[in-house]
Specification:
The protein is of the alpha/beta class and 565 residues long. The chain is built from 17 helices and 21 strands.
């Protein structure tokens, strides 16, 4: 049996938690008056706060409480105004409080394990900042974990608390650098039962693709691809156009051994002709991530200010905030508004010229909302020329290529991935359309042979068959509608939001399984879904994204939902 255990607190734990709170904060510390019942709780306990529990030999010995932003209020509101602590008005802040350990276990690792579990839980729900009210006499422990005093103190009864704060990124890096080896050493002695992995895994932005865990990333058992439904990534459900398959089948040995055109001149010419733009406005790359990293690292510095949609494709936040270190503001999209992008709020945010770069995803991934090209052109017309506008059109075909903003204005760069719309995810092809001067600057930093020969051949063939893809995009809309109706029928309490592209969102009711747990249980049925929780607190840990697949795979998705719901 593992020495320690970490798990979410249950309703059955509440009596023990409230009694331990009374023993420590009323009887021992004098923060609160004692009660005859010997139990201590407060109004926050009815607002969706989460308790994490540490156990020893399966016996609870300590807990920590987390208040997520969707609870609607904070424990700190009892002591400080928002003017005194304005960070509490931000939508990505989580409050960690009343870390409590039974007296005989206080000199053990029970407390540090609770602090680490709280960090991982907040990370898993998209939190970006943590605020805590720590006892002043334990300030050294909190500082060692990476929390910093805000300068605010709170006196409650006989106890003085420091208000402390840090970004989730800072805390995670602190843990990695100072305590990573200790975590590795202690991990085998812990029964980790939270719905988030103990370790974060690879550095960088989280993406889908967990379905390769079922197939095998070593490619030794590729037959398993027929046993899983990879609905966690947004790869097309349909095959590439017949001309693409013919091009790839024609002398693959020659394609494999032959260097491609060094600057993909033929592909650039085909893109220009298809999109009706000048050839010198086109920059190609090995997928949109290649272009994002290449462009943003040229355009931005840590002094730059960037506006992102939130929720939005995670690569943008990763590159701007984590890789480059920009100041990042977010335009919030909400479930209450069915993830609608409000053009008036967007225009107001951009009108002052405060941003070096604004990133728009149309249709937006992962929420699926979109704005017509006419509306976006009106918004962009009000944007000062010093603000670059990057429009990600990875899914624009699903709403119609007429909604593309390619060539809309000199300060607009349009990024088009050929992965999802053209069924070429494995080829890694994408392109930018910008003004010629911007394109020339980007091409100077484009390495030779950036796009492989098979990828160039496939992309050119795909662009030459627009009728095939237009038909598949229309068929996708029909499949999406059928899938949405079938999933809704499995549980009327689900909120199903059919997106405008090749996916939809399903939000669980608050009393149901968390999204991480739901995704984990669906995998046992060979169905892989995307848990959106780490992308943004707006998802409240209960929304999954489901890629639209062919009818047979969609039926398996529905069956998994019915079994797990």
């Amino acid at each position: 049996m593992a020495r320690w255990g970490l798990r979410a607190g249950t309703a059955a734990d509440r009596d023990w938690i409230f009694r331990l709170r009374h023993a420590v904060y009323a009887e021992e510390l004098g923060q609160h008056a004692t009660t005859e019942a010997g139990r201590l709780s407060d109004a926050m306990d009815g607002l969706g706060v989460v308790y994490l529990v540490v156990t020893s030999a399966d016996i609870p010995v300590g807990f920590v409480s987390i208040t997520p932003p969707w609870a609607g209020r904070w424990s700190l509101d009892k002591y400080l105004s928002r003017a005194e602590l304005p960070v509490l008005d931000e939508p990505d802040v989580f409050e960690v409080r009343i870390l409590t350990v039974e007296p005989r276990w206080r000199r053990t690792v029970a407390g540090p394990w609770l602090m680490y579990a709280a960090l991982r839980w907040v990370q898993s729900r998209g939190g970006r900042r943590m605020v805590a009210m720590g006892r002043a006499d334990l300030g050294g422990m909190y500082r060692a974990a990476g929390l910093r005093p805000t300068g605010q103190t709170v006196v409650s009864g006989a106890v003085t608390f420091e208000v402390m704060m840090a970004t989730v990124g800072e805390l995670a890096e602190r843990i990695r650098q100072r305590y990573g080896a200790a975590l590795d050493r202690l991990a085998p002695d812990v029964d980790w039962c939270l719905d988030v992995p103990m370790r974060t895994g690879a550095d960088g932005c989280l993406h889908g693709g967990a379905s390769f865990e079922g197939v095998g990333a070593d490619f030794r058992h590729l037959h398993r691809r027929h046993e899983v439904v990879a609905a966690d990534v947004l790869d097309a459900w349909f095959p590439p156009a017949p001309g693409v398959l013919a091009a790839l089948a024609d002398d693959p040995a020659w394609q494999a051994r032959t260097s491609p055109p060094v600057d993909a001149a033929g592909l650039r010419a085909e893109i220009a002709a298809t999109r009706g733009v000048p050839e010198d406005s086109v920059t190609v790359g090995a997928g949109s991530s290649d272009l994002i990293f290449r462009a943003f690292r040229q355009w931005l510095t840590p002094d730059s200010r960037v506006l992102l949609l939130d929720p939005g494709y995670g690569e943008y936040a990763h590159v701007t905030a984590e890789v480059i270190g920009c100041e990042v503001d977010r335009l919030p999209l909400t479930r209450a508004e069915r993830w609608r992008i409000d053009p008036d709020r967007l225009a107001a945010a951009l009108a002052g010229g405060a941003y070096d770069l604004a990133v728009l995803i149309n249709p937006n991934n992962p929420t699926g909302g979109w704005l017509p090209a006419t509306t976006l052109r009106e918004v962009i017309a009000q944007v000062p020329r010093q603000t670059r506008v990057w429009v990600d059109e990875a899914y624009v075909g699903y709403i119609g290529l007429e909604h593309s903003l390619a060539g809309a204005a000199p300060n607009v760069t349009v990024c088009t991935s050929m992965s999802k719309m053209y069924a070429l995810s494995g080829m890694r092809v994408a392109y930018l359309v910008s003004d010629p001067a911007t394109a020339a600057g980007l091409r100077r930093w484009t390495p030779p042979w950036a796009v492989s020969l098979p990828a160039q051949l496939a992309a050119v063939a795909a662009l030459r068959d627009p009728a095939y893809y237009a038909a598949r995009w229309r068929e996708t809309a029909s499949l999406r509608a059928d899938l949405a109706a079938a999933l809704q029928a499995t549980d009327r309490a689900f909120q199903v939001d059919p997106a405008a592209a090749n996916f939809l969102l399903v939000t669980m009711p608050g009393y149901a399984k968390s999204a991480p747990r739901f995704v984990e249980e669906c995998r046992r049925h060979g169905v892989y879904l995307r848990d959106l929780s780490p992308m943004s607190p707006a998802f409240e840990g209960r929304t999954v994204r489901v890629a639209v697949k062919d009818p047979a795979a969609n039926a398996r998705i529905v069956a998994a939902f019915a079994a797990v719901a």
